[in-house]
Amino acid sequence: QVQLEESGGGLVQAGGSLRLSCAASGRTFSNYDMGWYRQAPGKEREFVAGISWSGSTLYAGSVRGRFTISRDNAKNTVYLQMNSLKPEDTAIYYCNANTRPQGNNYWGQGTQVTVSS
What we know:
mainly beta, 7-stranded mixed sheet, 0% helix
């Protein structure tokens, strides 16, 4: 069982920045593929950014160039640095872990990000 705890959400004006953190339990964090997803009111959950166990990254087109995902295996933590925030980035942001080699999938409880215009 892997537990994920997000932090760092809040209210920010358009153009501002936030950094989300996701702390994971488990002794094999370095083997997890990690990701960030978001869900806006009335919309489906969507992929935002991912980072593999080896450090490869992938971004949704809507955030590429503005958001940066990174990980610190020594701290069992994955980060999402969000710059140039827009009102359409407003959503609940969820951390996701996919363990290797088992392929088990886990979600955090989410953290609210609100961007005012």
